[in-house]
Amino acid sequence: MNKGQRVTGCITNRDLGRVEFSGTVTDIYRSGRDTLVNVACDDGQERTAREENVTAAVEHVMSVLGGKVHLANSQSPVPFPLCNSGSRNTATKYRATTAPVTCRECGAIQQRRAARKASKANAPLGAVQKAG
Predict the structure, then answer these.
(1) What pTM was estimated for this model as a whole?
(2) Contact status, residue 86 vs residue 63, Cβ threshold 8 Å
(3) CA 130, CA 123: separation in Å to the nearest integer?
């Protein structure tokens, strides 16, 4: 785990119960026997959790034998590509990587996501988006 890396995790608080969060690592340090991770969360809060309660968010995957870098499917329990290349050969094993996406299909998915995000940001308040 490194500073600046996207992570998800949870902490248990006596008052609030179990709190799940996602964000970016801002600091990693040792306190006694524990390794603690400071996370700047997406909701604007700064949270500290034990390292074993924080997992790195997998964003890109690549075959263990090498090849193109794909967007990761967040619904899969193991690293697996978001595009159709994973369905072509389900026996292929993938690993997480920080390399930039090189798959043409995944690049198109990234462009569509960016365009959708930009159009939502530019839409006036209360406007209804057309489907499609």
Answers:
(1) 0.55
(2) no
(3) 11
